[in-house]
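Following up on my earlier thread - several people asked me to post the actual chain instead of describing it. Fair enough. Here it is, all 438 residues.
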Amino acid sequence: MLKAFRNALVIPDLRAKLLVTIGLLAAYRLMVHIPTPGVDIQALKAGGFGGGVFSLLNFISGGNFEVFSIAALGVIPYITASIIIQLLQSTYPPLEKLSKEGEEGRRKITQYTRWGATALGAIQALFLAVALIGPSGALKVGWANGPFFWFVVLVTQVAGITVVMWLGEKITEYGIGNGISLIIYAGIVAAFPGALGQQFALIGAGESNVFGLLFYLVLLVVAIAGMVLVQQAERRIPVQYARKVVGRKVMGGQTTYIPLRLNAAGVIPIIFAVAILVLPQTLIGGFPEVAWLQSLGAWFNPSQWQGLLFSTLLIVGFTYFYTQISFDPRRISENLREYGGFVPGVRPGQQTTEHLTRITNRITLWGALFLGLVNALPQTFSWLTGQQQLSLVFSGTGLLIMVGVALDTLRQLESQLMMRHYEGFVSKGRIRGRGRRF
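Reply from S.P.:
Thanks for posting it. Predicted structure:
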């Protein structure tokens, strides 16, 4: 990994991409220090809006919700809109047709996702202002809970959501890696120092024990190693291309393979699961006086066994869902038949489709179960070792997001390095060829 980054720093355009990525992430982190006008941050923290049922929202927003900055909602509206649009692509024929129209279709779907994220963000911001922030009394002197304050929160939060989406898209376009995933990753990494300091403070106060924390950290290292192995694992399906004689040339006859990753969905299922968990907690938090709603909200909190089980099932389900969207066995089999390829021992067409579907379902099962296991084990062992107040940064959800995003970014960086290597090889060959001709 370090070698890849060192090589990337030598190449000017890759160095520029890395600097653009770091600069845009730094700009996003600066948004944490820009509070929403009229909100008293200290009173807000005293009211408990930075923790409890809002711990997940604060976690996924990188600490923005705790101080209710202009990016308090973070990427949650964009992720929710992406889930809705992807579901509609499988059930709504016009969107399904649009998704198959190449670059132009993808551009329109991205535009629809932006509109959906803006609308969802506006609804959530208005709900937070009317049902949570305003009645809590966490307002500065001279501000009153009323339409003007609600309008200010609505405008600032929608503007923050728009800026976050713009930063994510620019990172994807001009930087390295997926912009939205890197924004979430940056927020989790930024919370690491504070989370470690909190654990040492608990040890000093006698509320935690150092041996339990050490055992838990060793478990995290083992889980990270297992996560890396699973993310890199793949099943290779051999493919043989028939030989064709064209004139005096023999074309085809090559043997290659189709790489099927054990976890083809990557980190997307975890991000989707966290986004789904945040929604009910945000809505339920608007009614603190209703006891049964608060009890219901506890079921969605991953620090409780019910919420942990629910989040694990969500991760397993979203792994299957996203794998089916990203990998289409029917399209692969049609492409193979069109170009004269076939899987040895399997007839082209429908049998190839069924063969690929069967293999994909089997390996996705193990990948989904592993993601669910890694999500559940850290919290389970924290209960067993007495580390009851561990931050979400050290949870299985945080671990999966960090490892998955880091591996995806490294994979893209290596592919960029490989592309530059071949371009350099071709250019050298052209120079040598010109020299011989002269």
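The first strand starts at residue 234 and ends at 241. That should answer part of your original question.
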